[in-house]
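Box 3.1 A note on notation
Throughout this textbook, protein chains are presented in two layers. The first layer is the amino acid sequence; the second is a token string describing backbone geometry. Keep the layers aligned when reading.
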Amino acid sequence: MSSDLLWKLAVQRISFLKTDEKRKVLAYCINSGRMPERKTLVDLIRRDFRSSYKKESILHEAENDLSLMIKQGIFTLSVDDEAYPEKLRSIHNPPFLLYGRGETLLSDVLNISVVGTRKATGLAMEKAFALSFHLARSGAAVTSGLASGTDSAAHSGALAGKGYTLAVFGCGIDRIYPSSSKDLAARILDEGGTLLSEYPPGIPPVRYNFPERNRIVSALSEALVVVESPARSGALITADFALEQGRDVFVLNAASPSPSAGEGTNSLIEDGAVVVESADDVLRELSYSVKSRDRSPVLLSHSGSRATGRFLADRFRAELEEREISREGVYYSL
């Protein structure tokens, strides 16, 4: 492995830097062969910061990350690598570095994100599983967040359909959260899927990581399907990111028996989100056609579905601004 990789791992450990700032610091490290002093770092990013910065500790952590990557077969993609997903690179402040396990990311298939509440009803779980199963059988990839409830049903359905599924973490790539998803994560790897995170090894699943993670879930896909969501749910944050990124947003008709369980998805529908009943509906809305179940979806002519055209993109702005998610120098309010 090149010394450039070690510098990338070190720069990614400076968590308060934006991606463009990390690019500047990486160039300095490669050219000088050392981590910048604090004053030099301030000059490079053109702003002061309050966060702790201990360059010796950061470099030591990066060396440990490199050793772990070799042991566990972890790969990385930096934002300027050719294989970095173009859909993700085009968003505001894309991840500087991605850590992955399993297959490298597929760029030549239709990718659909399927999300919803962790406390999904039985009916919603069944519907999420069936949707993902048929998407996989149609040749589409399924992306979700490995959480309990809807996410797990989506990944499991894609695996049952013998398809490719991608799980995006809200913690380090060496951790599985929740622990109840360990067997599912192992199956994803065993059956040709991918585990992905922007967080260095060892980073715990703290609360503010998940909205950050959700922007990746939405950005990697052509469209987002929300299965079931209460009024205040991470799935609604993902839906808002999807709209900001120009992705299509659908609501799966799960017909929740609990009014509160479907309150969030019902509000999406009221504001114009397109309701879908099946994988075929999703593909049709996206102007994709599947000639046989052994072939990948074929694009007919995609200029945006009714979901994007009808949806009121400002639906959740006020709510998100009230609970702004921020880390020093990085803001995710919309």
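Residues 3-72 form one domain. The first strand starts at residue 75 and ends at 78.
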